[in-house]
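Hi V.,

You were right to ask for the full record rather than a summary. Here it is.
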Amino acid sequence: MEVDASYGHGTMRDWAVFTHTAASLCAEQNLCTVDEATVHNTYALLGGGLRD
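Predicted structure:
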């Protein structure tokens, strides 16, 4: 998974938003790690998909 290439783009603010959202999804599902499904669900919540 290339979160930085798809969403973060080396920007701390983008990473903070992504991390906060992914952590919230993990907490809702009692997960301890961010898996591929969590990444895709996070993308969906943050704008409906990947940015190019």
